[in-house]
Design goal:
The complex is a heterodimer of chains A (269) and B (278). Chain A is of the alpha/beta class and 269 residues long. Chain A has a domain of 151 residues: Rossmann fold (3-Layer(aba) Sandwich), CATH 3.40.50. In chain A, 35% of the residues lie in helices and 13% in strands. Chain A has ten helices and eight strands. Chain A has a six-stranded mixed sheet with strand order 4-5-6-1-7-8, sandwiched between helices. A two-stranded antiparallel sheet of chain A has the order 2-3. In chain A, helix 3 crosses helix 4. By secondary structure, chain B is mainly alpha-helical. Chain B has one domain. The termini of chain B are far apart. The chains are: A alpha/beta (269), B mainly alpha (278). The interface between A and B is large, with 43 and 36 residues.
Chain lengths: 269, 278
């Protein structure tokens, strides 16, 4: 191989899905299945090498600005905030990137902090937040532009069972039932998929094996009494579903002080 | 100006304000580092002050076009070459820092264009550099540099053009960092050649004619030449016109081409899926 040539591999192959407005659509699959790549393509962070993708009717390649204007992205990565800014300062900064400024931004940020029940601690530094609070702030950030579609990449990944359930309740009651948002959710947690999603796609090795409601998926497994999504996963992929070990277990808070140039590199120390 | 264009400009200014406020707050959370850096800049200047004392009038024939004093000459050289260093490091380090902090992705899923995110992120570095340059000049005045005849409007025009040229080189450098992550040839090329050939520490007239040709290919040469003539000699705009013209030529070539290459780099890493890798 040429020294400047990069090794390429196919992370998504012939993926074809259509998500209805107001629907919570879940993608379940093991690590490395291509879930995050799919979300990143839909959020315009990665360009597909072939095929077409649309969000809210906008082409992710040709109309990427319109796509980004109409979506919200909730990442599980707590490093995506400035640790030495307060929650309010973080949200105000990201609000400006959504073209929200001045009083309008202050009001929107205040409203969202109230919604995710962080207003009492809004002026504390992000680095002092618990994993659950960080994730709530990530959701508040995803809602800054009042998007029609919200992309969530493993939103409860680093939370303890209680905090994860609270967050699921919030997603279901506020984001789905009250706000009527379309939610595109990647998860490594089958209970979460079952609780939140109207439809679920089983994803493996970059391909969608099947997409249906959790009930329909379970009903397709006729040889097991009281089949679960786990059984459905086994039936459609031929593999046992191994849930993420991080899931439902609190992540140890990093001991370093976060700032410019820190983060992953120090985690290895 | 159309109302839509006016709204666009206002939005860019408001975003610039947000980026500056963010960087200022982050920087002030490391106050000691910030003030130590400014404080130790003073020692750098002092070193050249005593070197100038040692040299005395030895370089007078070469320094005559700039007022004849080595300390004044080198002060302007060090002060304004700061902008090149900031440009070369500012944009590429911005890309790297945001990649490493994990904030780049969160910014790039907003409607703000990638080029704007990177450019506005580097603004704070230019503000700090300007504070530093201002301090250098103040220290210089206390140490006897004579700028009483300075042509400030002329210096300002040269400064703006200098920042445009150097920023373009910085954006080119950031494009390489985007794709190759490390090992940026633009940074290495300009870092190593500009100080030597750009006339930072000594006049380019010291070089044999062949090497002076290299100097004339660098925007640094015209930036420092113009700035010295404007601040130390008080040259009129007309007398500064040749340096201003050359800087405009560099800006006209470098700015659009660097933005074009940066967009190419962004598209390339989006295709490869390596946008947030470092």
């Amino acid at each position: 191989m040429h020294p400047l040539q990069r090794e390429a591999f196919t992370s998504l192959d012939s993926v074809s899905i259509r998500v209805k407005e107001g629907e919570v659509f879940g993608i379940i699959g093991p690590n490395g299945a291509g879930k995050t790549t799919l979300i990143k393509i839909l959020c315009t962070l990665i360009f597909p090498t072939s095929g077409k993708a649309y969000v809210n009717g906008y082409n992710v390649m040709d109309e990427s600005a319109q796509v980004r204007r109409s979506l919200g992205f909730v990442t599980t990565d707590e490093r995506s905030f400035y640790w030495r800014l307060t929650a309010r300062q973080n949200l105000l900064f990201f609000a400006s990137l959504h073209n929200l400024h001045g009083q309008k931004a202050q009001e929107r940020v205040g409203e969202l902090l109230e919604t995710v029940r962080l207003s009492g601690r809004a002026d504390e530094l992000f680095m002092g937040y618990s994993a659950g609070m960080k994730q709530k702030l990530a959701i508040a950030r995803g809602l800054l532009n009042d998007p029609r579609v919200l992309f969530m990449d493993e939103p409860t990944r680093s939370l303890d069972p209680g905090a994860a359930q609270n967050l699921r309740d919030f997603i279901k009651e506020y984001i789905v039932n009250e706000q009527g948002k379309t939610v595109f959710l990647c998860t490594h947690n089958l209970d979460e998929a079952e609780q939140l999603c109207h439809r679920v796609a089983i994803f493996d090795e970059g391909k969608i094996k099947v997409a249906a409601s959790p009930q329909e998926l379970k009903a397709k497994i006729t040889d097991v009494t009281g089949a679960t999504l786990r059984d459905a996963f086994l039936a459609f992929t031929g593999k046992r579903f191994v849930e993420d070990h991080h899931a439902e277990r609190p992540r140890r808070e990093p001991k370093f002080r976060h700032g410019v140039g820190l983060g992953m590199r120090r985690r290895g120390l | 100006m159309s109302p839509a264009l006016g709204r666009l400009d206002l939005s860019v200014l408001r975003k610039a304000h947000s980026f500056i406020l963010r960087s200022y707050t982050l920087q002030m959370s490391y106050k000691l580092e910030f003030f130590l850096r400014l404080f130790f800049a003073f020692f750098n200047i002092l070193t050249y002050y005593f070197v100038a004392k040692l040299i005395g009038t030895a370089g007078a024939p070469y320094l005559k076009p700039y007022g004849g004093d080595y300390f004044s000459f080198v002060l302007i050289g060090i002060a304004f070459s700061t902008y090149l260093m900031v440009s070369l490091r500012g944009f590429s380090e911005t890309v790297r820092d945001e990649q490493m902090m994990g904030t780049l992705e969160a910014m790039l899923v907003t409607p703000t264009d990638t080029t704007a995110v990177i450019t506005l992120s580097a603004l704070w570095s230019f503000i700090v550099a300007s504070v530093r340059v201002f301090l250098y000049l103040i220290i210089g005045l206390f140490l006897g540099v004579n700028m009483s005849n300075a042509n400030l409007p002329g210096a300002l025009i040269i400064l703006i053009l200098t920042i445009l040229c150097f920023s373009s080189i910085g954006i080119l450098s950031a494009s390489f960092i985007m794709i190759f992550k490390r090992g940026d040839p633009i940074n290495m090329l300009f870092m190593s050649t500009s100080e030597l050939f750009g006339g930072v520490l000594f006049p380019i007239e010291v070089f044999p004619p062949a090497l002076q040709t290299v100097s004339h290919l660098l925007p640094m040469t015209y930036a420092l030449n113009g700035m010295r003539h404007a601040l130390l000699q008080g040259y009129s705009l007309q007398s500064l016109s040749s340096d201003i013209f050359m800087l405009i030529v560099f800006a006209v070539i470098l700015l659009p081409s660097s933005l074009f290459i940066f967009r190419f780099a962004v598209n390339r890493v989006k295709e490869e899926g390596t946008l947030v890798q470092y």
